[in-house]
Design brief:
Elements: H1 6-12, H2 18-25, E1 32-34, E2 40-42, H3 45-49, E3 57-63, H4 73-86, E4 91-95, H5 100-104, E5 112-113, E6 116-119, H6 121-125, H7 131-151, E7 158-163, E8 167-169, E9 179-181, E10 192-194, E11 196-198, H8 203-210, H9 214-223, E12 225-229, E13 234-236, H10 243-250, E14 257-261, E15 266-269, H11 284-293, E16 296-300, H12 305-320, E17 326-331, H13 333-339, H14 352-372, E18 377-382, H15 389-401, E19 406-409, H16 411-414, H17 420-429, H18 446-457, E20 463-465, H19 469-478, E21 486-489, E22 510-518, E23 523-528, E24 547-548, E25 554-555
Parallel strand pairs: 3-16, 3-17, 4-15, 4-16, 8-11, 17-18, 18-19, 20-22, 21-23
Antiparallel strand pairs: 1-2, 2-14, 5-6, 6-14, 7-12, 9-10, 12-13, 14-15, 22-23, 24-25
Helix pairs in contact: 4-17, 7-8, 7-10, 9-10, 13-14, 14-15
Amino acid sequence: MAYLTDIEIAQACEKRPITEIAAKAGIDEKYLEQYGKYKAKVDYQFLKDHESDPNGKLILVTAITPTPAGEGKTTTTVGLADGLNKLGKKGIVALREPSLGPVFGVKGGAAGGGYAQVVPMEDINLHFTGDFHAIGAANNLLAAMIDNHIQQGNQLGIDTRRITWHRAVDMNDRALRKIVIGLGGRSEGVPREDSFDITVASEVMAVLCLASDITDLKERLSKIIIGYTSSNKPVTAGDLHAQGAMAALLKDALKPNLVQTLEGTPAFVHGGPFANIAHGCNSVTATKMALKLGEYVVTEAGFGADLGAEKFLDIKCRMAGLRPDAVVIVATVRALKLHGGVAKDNLAEENLEALEKGLPNLLQHVKNITEVFGLPAVVAVNRFPTDTEAELDLVIEKCKELGVNVRLSEVWAKGGEGAVDLAEEVIRLCETENHFEFSYEVEDSISEKLNKIATKVYHADGVDFVGQTSRQMKQLTKLGFGGLPICVAKTQYSFSDDASKLGAPTNFRITVRDLKVSAGAGFIVALTGDIMTMPGLPKVPAAEKIDVDENGVITGLF
């Protein structure tokens, strides 16, 4: 049976004018800044004017440990919001913006799938409203100001060997991981080693997503540490007087983007930090705006629950004063079979034994959400066309045997109608007892916080601090940063920091090889294993299949 591709489904959709979607959401036109007919920004003044309005229920969608087989977290998020609207509730979506790196690298698009998508899909996956370009420009303005300051005499005494601020580009480009700049003579700058991060790993991205308004944005930007002097004193963007110009570049990017689902549900798509190397959540501004407008707000956090959900709960909720009412954990038969040892090429074949072997990964994520964080949860088994009834029955029956709340989700094929059962359970969960707590306290030492995340969430035996990390912990604590939350940069493919350890591994330790403070974002980044902040393209990048015809119609975005 031939299926329409995601982009074919999206292009066949009859989109409604964004003014109509805004009215449906309850947004007055005075707050709307249109970018064409089908997308708009919403002025952050809306939040100030509606500060006293009650909040809706907040639902977090997360997933099992991701695999190349796909899980469908965004698809489930979109379909669930549509399902809530099918039940007569006012559901609103809050998602991250896709990065061009994965769009042209592995994924080929990240706006949902099948009949559970946000549109205009092509715009969202490509330049959208220019937010990522603004973030990259602000990041690189600061980099240029650092090198210019050094060239012009270096009054602040920046140690060129200890500059921690990197340049950024929103593309997977491994050739930029290590570079040398300033070559060509005295007038061309001071030669030094440098590197690029992908834009979604930039601290500017994290700052934008955690800032509450333009004043907070500017203050956070000023706190960004760009390096250290030879006497070990931190140098900030504020010391370079860069925060005003950076904020000027970001003033429109800070405003949440409004679009729609295929079924006309209002959707905020704003910000896009990766969850394996950043905090992996959409903007606080968009989430809070959605909570003022909807009875139920469905949001997602990147990758598996050990990464995106942990950071959503321990960082975003802590900083923004948010409290989730329910959590949906997405799993697929295909991904569970892969965790059970099946090769990717054989996932279409029924294999009940491997499926059962992969279940511990799902169960560990469920246990973390319900026991470590104390939140009510439901597993959404996201149905794929190749799943057999026997496989679906096995997952559902095993979950029920173990007391795990589970529902079948068919949003890819049926849209909101395929999420009605899941939506009913989510509504029920939102009214149940909620014992939300963090996995650590910010008052804990840096070492204690990392060990609690590793043992409670990853189920590791502990943490090994290697290289300069012991000295870095002492220095960060001495500088007053010891009380910040922790953002762990770790492979998304395993609970451990070793991507080859699938399922629910045991008897392992997490290796922390570098610690740095993101003072503007307000957290400490711990780099583990061999995680990199600049991905590379695969052997056959998705870019090879993306094209545009003479009429401007784009193809290949899955």
